[in-house]
Amino acid sequence: MTYNLGEMLAHRAYLAPRHEGFIGPDYRYCYAEVDRRCERLASWLRQAGLQPGDRIAVCGKNTEALATTIFAAAKADGIAVVLNWRLQVEELVYILNDSGARALFYDAAFAPIVEELRHRTGLEIFICNGVSATDPDYAGIVADESLPPGPPAVRRGGDTAIIMYTSGTTGKPKGAMLTHDNFLAAGHGTSSTIDWYDSHRFLLVAPIFHIGGLMPLTTSVQKGSTVYFLPDFDPVAVWGVIRHEKITTMMSVPAMLNALLAIAPRVEADASSLVNITCGASVVPKPLIEAWAAMGVSIQQVYGLTEVTGALSFWKAGMDASKGTSHGKPAFLNRVRIVDIETGKPVPRGVAGEVMCQGAVVFAGYWNNPNATNSALRDGWFATGDVGYLDDEGFLYLVDRLKDLIISGGENIYPVEVEAIILAHGGIAEVSVVGRPDARWGEVPVAFAVRKSDVAVAEQDIIDDCRSHLAHFKCPKAVIFLDALPRSGIGKILKPELRKMVAELVVNV
């Protein structure tokens, strides 16, 4: 494979020029128009002084402008650095300086933040998606018919196309380098596994700054699907778009699925066009799968990471229903094996160890961080940092994150095992278990839980229930009730914040 992501868009425009490509609340562009706009922006970037390999940071909500800029960066031989706009200024400054970004595309709403970034980074070129008193506007650039077509891109194949900075829960954020070939392989593997077609109408509400939003975008272009961009998740708005645009599929997390179901009766939700919804971040509970199935919608579960360009494995309708608590089977082109955490040697089926992945989707390494790269890539295999096992039929089950493992008195406690028991209690809507420092045992488990609104449940009820199902050393020593668990922009529970909360409780005791 020697494609460039920009060429992938151009090829789609060549094959289906009048097919709807990027649409949103107030715009509709066929693929030919998307490619023309992309070409003009790439030409402008070159004229502004962008050199092959220069980094172009993008900071914006889900819009065609953000997506077009990412593809234009590739056409201009640059590397897109996708920024999480929810980060604090100090975090953004670190990422921009670490990546050495020269250019920044940003939504006008983030102008106050950009003013701080302007003076604390090496940024030289600015593009504003909206009105700006100082910077060129995106709309004017892509409408400028005088901008000449540029030369063919020279960066392709194994060259880095996009840098995505992963969570800095164990230190500073690391920039995962994803190549043009990574995205082509991810699109091919995903579409071959879960049947992705040009007839799909994909609702992109998962943020593009996350791989769960970016990979569906590039795959949609690769396959020729129509993409509807929704800047923010709002259950009422989502149901409206599904109904009016005849959306067939989308990417979500369990919290989104719950929110959509909760509001459905009040908005006369119409799911008749929906074929399936792909869900990540955590295993979807069986009752939630069944509730959507009653509406005629199939839930597909995906286990993915930034470093494998999205999907590592899928569980979907048609697979053994009894395996619904698994993360399915590896996507096409992906190889998975389980190794002993201490020795790194492969373990038998059914034995838990670290999940490793090999294939064309595996990233090239971490930007400017050879030590982290060498730790993550071992003889061509990516070490996910997740603990899991393969059953006799090849279904992948995740046990926990290595970094979430609680070691109490020399015994390993996997939080998901404890969480499953607490969720089964009936009075708990969501729960997360973390380790609390303990002078005697090293650490002990503590549960953070959210009660269901119509159920009264006490701390001792949960502890007693756990003791009737688990070894006592696995049972939480305390249950802390919250109104809501802290979550990331894509719906993942932020365990580092819970660990910080529980550590502060210990200090204040």
UniProtKB/TrEMBL annotation:
It catalyses: 3-(methylsulfanyl)propanoate + ATP + CoA = 3-(methylsulfanyl)propanoyl-CoA + AMP + diphosphate. It holds the Pfam family AMP-binding. It comes from the Bacteria. GO terms for biological process: fatty acid metabolic process. InterPro entries: AMP-bd_C, AMP-bd_C_sf, AMP-binding_CS, AMP-dep_synth/lig_dom, ANL_N_sf. Its EC number is 6.2.1.44. Residues 11-367 form the AMP-dependent synthetase/ligase domain. SUPFAM superfamilies: Acetyl-CoA synthetase-like (SSF56801). Signal peptide: none annotated. Gene3D superfamilies: 3.30.300.30, N-terminal domain of ligase-like. The keyword Ribonucleoprotein does not apply. It is an enzyme of class 6 (ligase). One of its GO terms (molecular function) is metal ion binding. Keywords: Ligase, Metal-binding. Residues 417-492 form the AMP-binding enzyme C-terminal domain. Belongs to the ATP-dependent AMP-binding enzyme family. PANTHER family: 2-SUCCINYLBENZOATE--COA LIGASE, CHLOROPLASTIC_PEROXISOMAL (PTHR43201:SF32), ACYL-COA SYNTHETASE (PTHR43201). This is 3-methylmercaptopropionyl-CoA ligase. The lineage of its organism: Bacteria, Pseudomonadati, Pseudomonadota, Alphaproteobacteria, Hyphomicrobiales.
